[in-house]
Amino acid sequence: MLLAQKAFTMPRAADLVRKYLDGTTASGIFEAKAGQAIGGETHVYSPAYGEEELRDLLGFAHTILFNSWREWEHWQPLIRTELAERPQSERPRFGLRVNPGYSEVETLIYNPCTPLSRLGMTPEAFNQGLSRWDSSIRRDPEPSQCPEQPYIDGLHFHALCQQNADVLERVLEHFLTHYGAYLERVNWLNLGGGHHITRPDYDIDLLIRLIERLHTLYPHLEIYLEPGEACALNAGLLLATVLDIDPVSRNVILDTSAACHMPDVLEMPYQPRVWLLDDPAAEATVPGSTLRLSVSVTDRNGLENTYPDCLRAAADGGERYVLGGPTCLAGDTIGLYEFNRPLVRGDILLFGDMAIYSFVKNNTFNGIPLPALLWLNSDATVDTIKNFGYRDFIERLG
Ligand SMILES: Cc1ncc(COP(=O)(O)O)c(C=O)c1O
User: Fold this and answer.
1) Is the CB of residue 120 less than 8 Å from the CB of residue 59?
2) Closest approach atom of ligand 1 to CA 160
3) Same domain, 76 and 138
């Protein structure tokens, strides 16, 4: 089981990752270096590598995945040169990402299996490349024939997003239809991420049965999973302070921003849970509609602005507010929330589930400061990991 670092990379959490997982998987050289520092196996997949990047990766990565036969072919000279003097036991393993041709991810930007997806090879592309590269898929090196020749000994697919094991079962069926014949010829199979294993309703027994079934069919096969979200699901709190409240529109401006500090709220989109600090038991409820969701159905002329819906909701009773950030982006809103008392300036809100993706994707658009990073110890003491200041902002901008 690997941690997909794209979802959560935090050096301070390295001991925890080491304790429970076998290694990490990276999207490129920086994450791979961060993964190397954690330890265990360091896997890496990128839709395309740069030359310096791949040269560096060849120096330390445990497993390098290519997106296509084209990438594999293009990098043969570099791989052969870099590995020429290296004994087999010290070489990275190589694999290919394939597209199982089936997924149940409804949000298009998160679906890697659309027909023209650029992520992984379709069965057609895979089969076409075999006319040239069939002999480079094999379980063992062939020292007698060509000792320096690199070879592919694993396959990878990623087709899930926040899903349960029943979806994996259906994706696997498609994967096996297209690629099952090659599993005899490789040492390992990576089932990608998107498995919501730590969610209370996740069917772990089914996951175990699926892996056992694969092992029955292919006893030699090493099976990997590389969840990101599930590794830190519901972890991480973001503290925000109420800066201003408009009593008419019920807009609340916070010192935190959806666009800067939780971009997945806008991209995914989703609405995070919120607590009001002086009453930890009082979680804000999320009334049916949100400003953000409403905005997405606004017509092209902007005439049907659904903002009045929020006003109506507020007028209906309850302490309803639209929480938003201090940036210039009109849509920098986190959503419509209901609290059990009126908010006042200076109130502190806690946003939940902020460790995954929000954390690695944050930015300083509009020069909005990044929040400090704090670590809550199990004895309830808090360590400050990093405070971000003006220098961090301006130095990154050159
Ligand atoms: C190749 C690959 N592996 C793993 C993951 C992690 O997925 P998740 O965080 O949904 O578990 C992703 C996410 O996009 C991915 O693209």
Assistant:
1) no
2) 10
3) yes
Which residue owns the Cα nearest ligand 1 atom 10? 194
Q: Which domain holds residue 54?
A: 2-232
Q: Which two tokens stand for residue 41?
A: 């196996």
Query: How many DSSP H helices and E strands does the chain contain?
Result: 14, 16
Closest ligand 1 atom, CA of 195? 11
Which is nearest to 119 in space by CA: 223, 192, 188? Answer: 192
Out of 232, 266, 281, pick the residue that ends a domain.
232
Say whether both 124 and 172 belong to one domain.
Answer: yes
Q: Do 221 and 265 sit in the same domain of this protein?
A: no
| Dist. CA 226 → ligand 1 center (Å) | 7
C-beta of residue 322 within 8 angstroms of C-beta of residue 250: yes
CA of 229, closest atom in ligand 1: 9
CATH number at residue 215: 3.20.20.10
Q: Same structural domain for residues 158 and 245?
A: no
Q: 303 and 266 in one domain?
A: yes
Residue whose entry in the numeric block shows the structure tokens 């979802």: 7
* SS3 label, residue 10: coil
Pocket test for ligand 1, best of 2, 5, 6 (most atoms within 8 A of CB): 6
Residue range 240-295, pLDDT digits in tens: 999 999 999 999 999 999 999 999 999 888 889 898 887 655 566 665 433 332 32
What is the chain's length?
Answer: 398
pLDDT tens-digit readout, 16-59 = 999 999 999 999 999 999 999 999 999 999 999 999 999 999 99
Same domain as 179, residue 256: no
Domain boundary among 170, 204, 232: 232
Find residue 338's DSSP bridge partners: 285, 320
Atom 12, ligand 1: which residue's CA is nearest? 193
